[in-house]
Each structure stands twice: as structure tokens, then as C-alpha cells.
Design a protein that fits this description.
The strands form two sheets. A three-stranded antiparallel β-sheet has the order 1-6-5, with no helix packed on it. A three-stranded antiparallel β-sheet has the order 2-3-4, with no helix packed on it. Helices cover 55% and strands 13% of the residues. Among the domains are: 66 residues, no CATH class; 65 residues. With 244 residues, it is an alpha+beta fold.
């Protein structure tokens, strides 16, 4: 059963959790998300003397109450004492033979280590050389491919330029021929001029016909004396030829 320790009469807010720590009353906001930090604030500091084996809390009336802790924390185990190394006086002294054998084994180990390092460096060097040679070969292949592609492109551009030049030459020759021929550009101009002349002639003829229709008819004149003389001369020549 819980027993009241102190009557504070606090108003509990449903959005907060109330607890007692170090004799003071605190409250913290309820958060649903894991990443949001709850806001913590102190409400009252009555400095309650908290006894062990009891759980202190704020009850529904807003007062401080306590109840017996049914599952108390186990007592801490005592730390193990560290083993101390034996003192130098008690340590057995090494003989000169033991020291010499130890030095020999250390030097052998060192030489073996140096040899292993040299071998590893050699292997690494050979592997690095092989990798460099492989990279050079790949780079040379790529460069050769690029050169061949550039050469093909240059040949194609030269071919295209040559074809364009020949086409332009042929077009120029055709235009020259058309200009020099009667059916060329000059013929067109002449045809246009002829059309204009024909239209002007038709206009003149229509105007003359209109004028003749409106004007009075004049009496027809006989042939002139000169024409009569010419006709008589031609008739005489023909007669003389027939007599012969």
C-alpha cells in the first residue's frame, strides 16, 4: 500500500509525466517520436528525505506518496584486487647462458623479419610492375583506337568536301550552260519581252480597228503613174522573151 509523504495538491497535466528525483518534483513531456527531445522542468523542490527500498511518486491527488520497492536493485559486488607483480628482490636472477640464448633468438627473429619484409617488397614490386605494364597496354590500345577513329573521321570529311566541291562545280557548269543556251535565263527574258511586244501590238491593232470603224470610208484610188510604167515595162520584157 502507498502512503502519503507530503501534500502538495499539484494539478496534473495529461501531456506530462511526473516523477521525483533527489527530493524534488519534476515533470517531462510525453513524446511519441524517437528523435524528439522531451522538455524537462522542475515544479517544486520540497527537499524530501528519500529512504532506500522505497519508490517515491506523485499520486492522482497531486501529492507525494511512496510505496515499498518489491524488486530492489542487487548490491554491488566488491571489486577484485589486482594481482601485484613480484618484487625485483624476489625475482630469480637470470644466468649469462640464458641471456645469451635470449639475445640469439631475438636477433634470429629480427633477421627473419627483415628477410620476410624484403620478400614482401619484392613481390609487391613485381606485382606493381605487372599492373603498370597492364595499364600501359590498355592506354596504348585506347590511344590506337582513338587514332584510328580520328583517321576515319578525317577521311570521311575529306571525301565529303571532295563530293561537295564536285557538286558545286557541276552546278556552276550547268548554270553557265543554261545562261549561254537560248533556252536559258536569256531566253526567259526574251520571251517576256516578246509577250510584252505582242500585247502592245494587239492593243495597237484594236485601237486601229476602232478608229477605222468610227472614221468615214474614203473612195479607192487607182494605181499611180510609176507603178503603171513598171507594169508596162515588165510586160514588154516578157513578150520579147517569148518571141525569141
Amino acid at each position: 500500500m502507498a502512503e502519503k509523504v507530503l501534500g502538495l495538491g499539484l494539478k496534473r497535466d495529461p501531456g506530462f509525466l511526473y516523477y521525483i528525483q533527489n527530493g524534488d518534483v519534476w515533470r517531462v513531456t510525453k513524446t511519441e517520436s524517437e528523435f524528439a527531445r522531451p522538455k524537462r522542468e522542475r515544479i517544486a523542490s520540497p527537499q524530501i528525505a528519500m529512504e532506500p527500498h522505497f519508490v517515491y511518486f506523485v499520486d492522482a491527488d497531486g501529492d507525494v506518496a511512496r510505496a515499498k520497492d518489491l524488486d530492489p536493485k542487487p548490491a554491488k559486488r566488491p571489486r577484485r584486487q589486482r594481482r601485484t607483480a613480484p618484487s625485483k628482490d624476489k625475482a630469480p636472477k637470470r644466468t649469462s647462458a640464458a641471456k645469451a640464448s635470449r639475445k640469439r633468438s631475438a636477433s634470429q627473429h629480427k633477421t627473419r623479419k627483415v628477410e620476410l619484409r624484403k620478400q614482401q617488397k619484392k613481390r609487391d614490386g613485381t606485382q606493381a610492375g605487372a599492373r603498370r605494364a597492364e595499364r600501359r597496354a590498355v592506354a596504348a590500345q585506347k590511344a590506337a583506337k582513338k587514332r584510328s577513329a580520328a583517321a576515319k573521321k578525317a577521311a570521311a570529311t575529306r571525301k565529303a568536301k571532295k563530293a561537295a566541291a564536285t557538286r558545286s562545280k557541276k552546278a556552276a557548269a550547268k548554270t553557265k550552260k543554261a545562261a549561254s543556251s537560248p533556252r536559258g535565263g536569256g531566253a526567259k527574258k526574251r520571251a517576256v519581252a516578246a509577250k510584252k511586244k505582242a500585247s502592245a501590238a494587239t492593243k495597237k491593232a484594236s485601237a486601229a480597228t476602232k478608229k477605222a470603224a468610227t472614221s468615214k470610208k474614203k473612195p479607192a484610188r487607182g494605181p499611180s503613174r510609176a507603178t503603171a510604167k513598171k507594169k508596162s515595162a515588165t510586160a514588154a520584157k516578157r513578150s520579147s522573151r517569148s518571141r525569141k
